[in-house]
Amino acid sequence: MFNQNFIVRLLERYNLNQSTKSEKKVLDGFLEDLYKKSEWDEKEIGDKKETKKIIFDSINSKINRSKPSYGWIKYASVAIILILFKLFFPSENTTKQITFVSTQTIDSIILPDNSRIILSPHSKLAYDSDFNDKYRAVTLLKGNAFFKVTKNKTKPFIVTTGNIKTTVLGTSFNIDIQKDKINVDVKTGRVEVASKSQQKIIYPNQRVSYSIKKQTLSKEMDIRVLPWYENDIQLSEIKIRELGVIVKNRFGYNIRYNDSSIDNAKVTIHISKGESVNQIIDKLKYITSLKFKIDANEIKVSQ
Questions:
Q1: Cβ proximity of 101 and 109 under 8 Å
Q2: Do residues 107 and 208 share a domain?
Q3: Is the pLDDT of residue 88 over 60?
Q4: The pLDDT of residue 179
Q5: Scanning 64, 77, 94, 144, which has its CA 20 to 30 A from the CA of 270?
Q6: How far apart are CA 226 and CA 250, in angstroms?
């Protein structure tokens, strides 16, 4: 079952043109579920025709008191959904899993506790509809995500990723699922990462890496948490290898080099909100002597 407060909040964000693609998908799923499960109970709701007339008379009175506009039509649509939501929402205490899948671009979701998760392209996240009722728990199933967690000392925020759990109270961190490992990087605050047999505590600019093959945790110090998730990024003297991580997390392209010496070449570059991967490549061609070629979801770099 969908969490009622969460759906109302999503509807309000939709009405303000603030919905992300993933949030719109959740609303679509809710409305489809509502349509399939809805039944009219005249004892509880009243006569169907009479109730329908009350709903539309109420909306029309608001529209008639002002100039007609697209905004009013949109408001009316959301008002109808809100009313139907209250009429038909199931009262059973059941839980349903909500899933978010990003496509070829960055996407984000704001959870009921106001925590924000930014997903890289081709990533997948899930959590239960009763999130924040008693617990705050999500599962990163695929890809890469940056978490900005709202502080709550009484409800730890737990991210399950494969065989490890990342637990925080309120902080920001990044989790990246790769073929052979899972990296947890801390931007701010304190983070606990645990497997079945190990536990590590890390702080800003530290990393825990989990080996999928060995099933072991290792800790790295003084790492750089790359700001792939920010709207505008100013990078000064950054290694091409590090820039490759940003391109992968921001645009979904892997970078492959024909010469390992290219890894340590440095560039200074500004990435603006809305710039495409082709525009970034054009900039790199201009400021370096390197050659770049896009092949499917891969960028080949050569001297």
A1: no
A2: yes
A3: no
A4: 92
A5: 144
A6: 11
Q: What is the 3-state secondary structure (H, E, C) of the chain?
A: CCCHHHHHHHHHHHHCCCCCHHHHHHHHHHHHHHHHHCCCCHHHHCCHHHHHHHHHHHHHHHHHCCCCCHHHHHHHHHHHHHHHHHHHCCCCCCCCEEEEECCCCCEEEECCCCCEEEECCCCEEEEECCCCCCCEEEEEEECEEEEECCCCCCCCEEEEECCEEEEECCCEEEEEECCCEEEEEEEECCEEEECCCCEEEECCCCEEEEECCCCEEEEECCCCCCCCCCCCEEEEEEEHHHHHHHHHHHHCCEEEECCHHHHHCEEEEEECCCCCHHHHHHHHHHHCCCEEEEECCEEEEEC
Q: Is residue 144 part of a domain?
A: yes
- Position 30 scores a pLDDT of 67
169-189 mean pLDDT: 95
Query: pTM here?
Result: 0.70
- Please give the Cα distance from 128 to 303 (Å, whole number): 49
From the number of C-beta atoms within 10 Å of its C-beta (0-12, 13-18, 19+), residue 74 rates as middle
Residue 113 above 70 pLDDT? Answer: yes
* Same structural domain, 107 and 204: yes
Query: What's the average model confidence in pLDDT over 259-269?
Result: 80
Mean pLDDT of the chain: 81
Q: What is the Cα–Cα distance from 216 to 196, expressed in whole angstroms?
A: 9
**pLDDT grade for 291, boundaries at 50, 70 and 90:** confident
Domain containing 277: what range? 233-302
